[in-house]
Please model this.
Amino acid sequence: MAEYDIAVCGGGPAGIIAAVAAARNGAKTILIERYGFLGGMATLSLVSPISVFNKKGKRIIAGIPLEFAEEMERLGGADTSFPSGNIHFDPEIYKLAAQRMVLGSGATLLLHSYITDCKREDGRVTCITLENKSGRQTLEAGYFIDCTGDADLVKYAGFPFRIGDEERRELQPMTLWFRLGGVDTDRLENMEMRESNRRHVNMRVREKLLSLDKDVPKFGGPWMLTTFRRGEVSINMSRFAGDGTDVLSLTEAECRLREDVFRLVALLKENFEEFKNCYIIDTGTQAGIRETRRIDGLYEMTADDILSPKDFPDTIAKGGHPIDIHKPDSREQDLRRVDEGYNIPYRTLIPKGSENLLVAGRTISATREAIASIRVQATCMALGQAAGTAAAICAEKNLPVDKINIAELQKALKTQGAII
Model:
């Protein structure tokens, strides 16, 4: 295939914004995605809302991520007005807005392509191997951004990473989201994550399910969210303790969770008046993944960096979501409030030993507790803008990714509307 300045691997929230940022900054860019549409967990797994753009009523994330959200709103598929900074969206509008923004930036889009290997010379990745309907292809680029969500390219390249809670060999559980129609949504409370600093679990439904003298599948929440359509609801409640990087575990999760979804829906129909006429519209294309690999980078973000924010000299993005660790073997969460926006340094995007590979999204260098806040969509998008902009600057100047002029990067991000 043709050679590119920058290859962005993975078309989820981080990858979409990384590709747009790289292309707008003048780099010949390609975005590679294994499904036939963009959006990652947001669209293929129905994960919503986009969290969080605000903290204490002020924007902490703007730039290209906010531009994307506003484009969805213009198309009738999002609402950016909530004080919480949580943005509910229509997954189909998300797909459309994402491809329009990527293609409109001048980036090349390659769908239905799965990264299976790479070549590395010292600290540089020289090319990646793709499998798709055209066969096996090799793609060369000067710089790469791993936005796969699972640090797949980092793994193939042999750069160091960690996975989950290494001491207890534990990961946050997977969830198969589902959407229901035929729901009396006029009677269903707490469907919008409009306000900050409150839990949006439907406690009435939760307590009733826990009280049933029946075999109730393991569940979390539940979170029952608006789809913008009366009579419909998007539900996050199923859970399975497994490893999203292990194909056997992932297969077991998909099968088990699908059985659980149908059982949970039957229990909703039997026990709640507003669900008595409901039916399943769809489930996620795949199980939603909260946690897998994270890189061993030049700086590791900690829970203290989030709860007591630091003024990093190389800050390139902000976050504000609570530290939210779902427990794999129970219905509970370890939830710690975050009172103000915190800073994320550029060094967290660089795997140790890398000269031309950056990461963005939930695989950055951070402890498990820190990733439990960083992993949400708006923060991943902001990291994507930083990674894409940095890669473009490095490509123009032929620099190793750890030698970039931080002041120049920060100035470029601010010019693009980013808040740092």
Remarks:
- The CA atoms of residues 209 and 216 lie 7 Å apart.
- The chain has a mean pLDDT of 96.
- Residues 247-271 form the longest helix (25 residues).
- The two ends are 37 Å apart (CA to CA).
